[in-house]
Amino acid sequence: MSMMKRISLIFQSKANKALDRAEDPRETLDYSYQRQLDLLSKVRRGVADVATSRKRIELQVNQLEQQSQKLSDQAQKAISMNREDLAREALTRKSGLTGQITDLKAQHAQLQGEEEKLTLAQQRLQAKVEAFRTRKETIKANYTAAEAQTKIGEAMSGIGEEMGDVGMAIQRAEDKTANMQARAGAIDELIASGALDDASSLNRGDDISRELESMSSQADVEAELAALKGLSQPSQPQAIEGGDILSPEAQKATENREGQA
Amino acid sequence: MIVRILGEGQFDLTDADLDWLNELDTAVETAVENGDQAAFETALAALLDAVRSHGALHELDALDPSDLILPPADATIDEVRAILGDEGLIPG
């Protein structure tokens, strides 16, 4: 027998087993309807769970991309200060992040696919549950227990198959999400431990920025010193213009005034 | 004839489609038996594409059981074995 036929028989036998359990077949209708509603709310929760995981990954990608940009800037700055060693270190860390980002983006796409699939599954089940509810009321109103059996069987096998399908879809989505959540948790821990340096905690900084900052503050001191020294010697244009007007003694007096100011 | 692709819904096909459906299904089955994942993926994709392109979506609010059921598009060989074997993948 073909694979397709075997799978359909397996689904049908599941639906029939549920039918055999009840003494009055009409009880099966109410019981099944309740299970359909339960399954519907389970699908809704499933969609929400997948969406939460997807958003978490989006957040992580943003954090890692910020961090990656920061490392690029640091490398640039290090090069401008002739510190190739620091630039190399920054770029090495950045390439590690790029791998993580690519990986997370692939997971994100997968979760988006799962979310869409579950949303469609929810719509299909919703339509069938609604149809079942109508059929259930008709059967309960119009048939005796004995007559109802066949009608119920017809309604049950269609909805039973859909429930099996949707149940399986949720199971698969849950497995995938659980797997990704474990990995997302590991990345959160890495970010928290500072190994990847969380770009959102600006006060903490990392070793590369500390070194660059100390270098640039040294550079600032030098620049300020140079500026102060520059002030103590009249700037060149003034000297050229004023050279003929002021005697060397008067120039010295000007310097002293400026020095005191 | 109603064919369900698990995870996607039901499609209406004509009985005349059964011949080539069976042909494509045999390719999938052979790949499952041989444990050949690459061949399985190609064969399953061909089978599902054929159903999607030849079939029309069955009414959403119908309660009809399917004549044939196909594995989901991203199924692995192990999953198909689980469905066919101990029914482990189908809840309740």
List keywords for this structure.
heterodimer; A: 261 residues; mainly alpha; 7 helices; 88% helix; B: 92 residues; alpha+beta; four-stranded mixed β-sheet; 3 helices
Walk me through the structure.
With 261 residues, chain A is mainly α. Chain A has seven helices and no strands. Chain A has helices spanning 3-21, 25-80, 84-142, 145-193, 207-232, 236-242, 248-260. In chain A, helix 2 runs parallel beside helix 4. The N and C termini of chain A lie far apart (103 Å). In chain A, 29% of the residues are buried. Residues 198-204 and 234-244 of chain A have low confidence and may be disordered. With 92 residues, chain B is α+β, with helices and mostly antiparallel strands. Chain B has helices at residues 18-34, 37-54, 77-84, and strands spanning 2-5, 9-12, 56-57, 68-70. In chain B, strands 3-2-1-4 form a four-stranded mixed beta sheet, with helices on one face. In chain B, strand 1 (2-5) and strand 2 form a beta hairpin. In chain B, helix 1 (18-34) runs antiparallel to helix 2 (37-54). Chain B is globular, with a radius of gyration of 13 Å. The model of chain B has no long low-confidence stretch (mean pLDDT 90). Chain A binds chain B through residues 2-8, 10-12, 14-15, 18, 35, 117, 120-121, 123-124, 127-128, 130-132, 135, 154-155, 157-161, 163-165, 167-169, 171-172, and chain B through 3-4, 6-9, 21-22, 25-26, 28-29, 32, 60-72, 80, 83-84, 87, 89-92.
